[in-house]
Design goal:
Layout (H helix, E strand, L loop, with lengths): L24 E9 L5 H10 L4 E8 L11 E2 L6 E4 L15 H14 L3 E4 L6 H11 L4 E5 L2 H7 L8 H11 L3 E4 L5 H7 L6 E3 L20 E4 L4 H14 L7 E4 L8 H5 L3 E3 L11 H7 L4 E4 L14 E4 L3 H13 L2 H9 L6 H16 L12
Parallel strand pairs: 1-2, 1-5, 2-4, 5-6, 6-7, 7-8, 9-10, 9-11, 11-12, 12-13
Antiparallel strand pairs: 3-4
Length: 378
């Protein structure tokens, strides 16, 4: 509903035509722990500056002791509510079987009645929290930000899980709309058995990154490369062998996707190389590289072709040793091309722009009745 224009007047003899103001959007952000640098608390802080949104953060106490007799408490004045919750009872922390905690959380949900519940983790409240929300606040829209780390922990990516573990996950994730950081994760979600209509590509609230000027383009050209499997690592090894035949070869710094954080290795490089021949980037490293002003080299196919624009963000081409070696040697001989490409990369969205986009998504989801699972699923 559009707000009333300031300064408007009505005829004193006419009845008031002012419609009642729309109720605020009540947003509950759920996280494993309270981290001032992470997206959940930054979303709540941004919502505090947005008219028409009331926001709370619910997270585990992470070792902070509650007052005597309480398990859900508010030690901070920023809308953060902490719950004394142990992690789940299985290895992946998917379950929370503390009946007393779930009872208290249920009463709290009913009292406040959020209409958007944005999950950033399953721990420490477990899949049972999704069931609790669907039963007690059935009209609430449930969103889950599926970070690469969380997708691996849930078994959507990485090693296959057994049926007894996959079945309940698939059942409860079907209640939510999944927010994916990049298109590369869509295939894994579909293969897991999730509905395409419940997958939305929407990056998390961006952090303010410090300025990261391109390292000097002197003697060496440094490329940060992140293989996802043995086949891609073999591709890089063969490329290195071809590069080694030249007197001044560029340096391939092969990174480990399991190593976190990944920002420092990309900052120390001039380029990011994603060697997936299908153009996938489930870890969303390309977005980080572009935010740091580093051009990207990737395959000319797949999801990355919709994110990386050739001639502005980097180079797209075939992923084979000969083609990669030729491209990298050409850039090493003309490093000004790298500097010119880095200068054309568009700046990332500001935190304010990211928050406005996310809040618009909340309102869109809230207005869409299809975002609520059918009653028979509850």
């Amino acid at each position: 509903m559009d707000p009333l224009r300031k300064g408007s007047t009505l005829d004193q003899d006419s009845p008031s035509l002012a419609a009642p103001s729309a109720p605020p959007l009540r947003l509950l952000v759920v996280a494993a722990r309270r981290d001032p640098e992470a997206a959940p608390l930054r979303i709540v802080a941004a919502a505090a500056e947005e008219a028409g949104i009331e926001a709370r953060l619910l997270c585990g106490a992470d070792g902070m002791a509650p007052p005597p007799g309480m398990r859900l408490f508010q030690p901070f004045p920023d809308g953060s509510f902490l719950a004394e919750a142990e992690p789940g009872f299985d290895a992946a922390e998917h379950s929370q079987r503390d009946a007393d905690l779930l009872r208290r959380l249920g009463a709290w949900l009913v009292e406040w009645s959020p209409n958007i519940i944005h999950l950033h983790d399953i721990a420490p409240f477990g899949l049972e929290f999704i069931a609790l929300a669907r039963r007690l606040v059935p009209e609430a829209r449930i969103l889950l930000s599926l970070r690469p780390e969380l997708a691996a922990r849930l078994g959507l990516t990485g090693p296959a899980r057994g049926f007894l573990e996959v079945a309940p996950l698939r059942r409860f994730l079907a209640e939510a709309t999944l927010l994916l950081p990049c298109e590369s994760m869509i295939a894994a979600c579909l293969e897991f058995g999730l509905e395409a209509g419940r997958l939305l590509v929407h990056p998390t609230l961006p952090r303010v990154l410090p300025e990261s000027p391109l390292p000097p383009l002197g003697r060496f050209l440094v490329i940060a490369a992140y293989p996802a499997n043995a086949e891609q690592r073999a591709l890089l090894t063969a490329t290195e062998a071809l590069l080694a035949r030249h007197p001044n070869p560029p340096l391939l710094q092969i990174g480990d996707l399991a190593a976190i954080p990944r920002q420092a290795p990309i900052e120390a490089a001039h380029l990011l190389l994603l060697p997936d021949p299908e153009g996938a980037d489930p870890e969303n490293l390309s977005r980080l590289a572009l935010a740091l002003g580093r051009p990207v080299i990737c395959a000319a196919r797949g999801a990355l072709t919709r994110q990386i624009q050739a001639g502005r963000d980097g180079w797209l081409g075939p992923m084979n040793p000969t083609a990669l070696a030729d491209l990298l040697l050409g850039l090493a001989e003309a490093p000004e091309q790298v500097a010119a490409m880095a200068a054309t990369i568009l700046p990332p969205p500001s935190p304010a722009e990211g928050a406005a986009s996310l809040f618009a998504l909340y309102r869109e989801v809230l207005a869409d009745p299809a975002r609520v699972a059918p009653p028979e699923r509850i």
